[in-house]
């Protein structure tokens, strides 16, 4: 197959030229979705979803199984093209139909299964598909230096040698490599699909710290997670999907675990959270 | 497990984040040695099993063969010639094995390559031999393109496509050979002599020595400059001692080969010199090693074989990579076919393409190429092919009938595959 062209024949009907929904320009988020719909045959996966992903903020995307989290992520990543709706990138209307469109904008996705080749080493994985060459030969030295730099910037220092195959890495280290791979390409938005799902306590800690560092670098981060502990630990904002509809989108400080669970399961929440302090009350 | 380079892999998963897995490349010789031991224990034995196998086979046959004739220069040159076909077939098979595929048709595709070349150098067309070789290889490459396209575009299993190919090209081979049932390259014209001389033509001893010096010097320069440059700029680099050891090893191997070939092994007339087939095999080895390990295409082959989905998501055109692997497999098979044609003095309908396939897979796997994709080098084909060639040659020297050759080669293949499976199992634990 040609590299992952989205389903052709289903053009994304994003209408360029229409003004974005009223928002002061200084608060214009990096990525703004308006009315995104997607169906697969008779199954409607997304109903007019709105989503804002601001710079230097971590947005958690929550939802029960089948809520449409993966479809929404894949729509942003260009694996599925949206049927309806508009996408604004830095305020400009854009169309995202293929993964190349998405990565050209600066969007990178870290998938749950990490998409690393176990038989290749860290450097080879980080440059997979975008190898640096001089003439017809691979420029290993240049790639190794750049990979080492990125890992150092993210303070991923637990790997002994960046020339070891990723098969020899622990789960957290693999996740770190996958994240480093994603941020290496001057990306502006990084989406992580269940980044801590398979990790132990210490490794989860490491990955959450890594996510905070991405935020500190000014990147927009979207984390898909079932784990509300992680959500309340790293996220500035929470967006909740339920049965293909965006039922809530708010700052983390205005929510607590119960309200998020309410939104995920029933689509509404009657709970009123008083202030940031109340999020600390354990669920 | 003990030693600083070898933390217990089982506890690594539950240990804290800063638990360090065994380093793969270390900076000092001692550290390198411990790392290597840790890797062998961890299941990634690299070239160790095949080198041990080669030594064992050599010792056994040297002791058992009458007058220890196995190690005589005459027999060793003969062994190189016989192994050349298995080695080059394994080079070709390596490409599809790296993707976790298999090409069962390579034996008869090789035969067709040899036949096309042989027929073109017959007196009637009398095509210049370089063109005849190119034509033979082009036909094989086209066959590979056809089979590869069926596998990738129509998503048919490689096993079935090449099994059909096995029958089809067997039939085509018989059609090509026609009623004569064979085609020879032992005629007197220059073009036939050139093909025949691939195995039975010899390089002048002096030129062979000069060539060896040039090759070793070039190898040493390239390796030295690369490793020294990496050490200087603080990149991960093998220790100085290892760089020197590699260069010395290549020089010694080269000296032994040239020295053996330059002993007179003729009975009535003197026969001296390195057969052309040896530099030809080494040239193919060099080309495919560079392609696989130093070029973008090779990196994509490893990535596709290791994790197809990861490769696809990284924007690699997986379809093209797989198709090209089949093309390169069949074309390299064609080179083997031409060598085989030279070795036999021509091609007949007696060619056993099925056995050639098995030897090709066996050679690659014995050399360390994984049947499950993602792991293997061109060098594996050389070492594995020598093991197969040595067994074939040694059992013949012992006067054992063909049935024992088959049984013993099969047992060696089983042993090699079990090493492959075990190493996968232990790396899955890590």
Find the structural class of chain B using helix and strand composition.
mainly alpha
Spans where pLDDT lies below 50 across 5 or more residues of chain B: 1-25
Main sheet record of chain A: 6 strands, mixed
What low-confidence regions of chain A span 5 or more consecutive residues with pLDDT below 50? 1-25, 275-283
Oligomer: heterodimer
Tell the overall outline of chain B.
globular
**Biggest sheet of chain A: strands side by side, in what order?**
6-9-10-3-11-12
Can you give a write-up of this model?
The complex is a heterodimer of chains A (about 280) and B (about 425). Chain A has a domain of about 180 residues: P-loop containing nucleotide triphosphate hydrolases (Rossmann fold, 3-Layer(aba) Sandwich). Chain A is built from 8 helices and 12 strands. In chain A, a hairpin with a 2-residue loop joins strand 11 and strand 12. In chain A, about 50% of the residues are buried. In chain A, helix 5 runs parallel beside helix 6. Helices cover about 30% and strands about 25% of the residues of chain A. Chain B is mainly alpha-helical and about 425 residues long. Among the domains of chain B are: about 40 residues, no CATH class; about 240 residues, no CATH class. In chain B, helix 4 runs parallel beside helix 11, helix 5 packs across helix 14 and helix 6 packs antiparallel against helix 14. The two termini of chain B are about 15 Å apart. The N terminus of chain B is likely disordered.
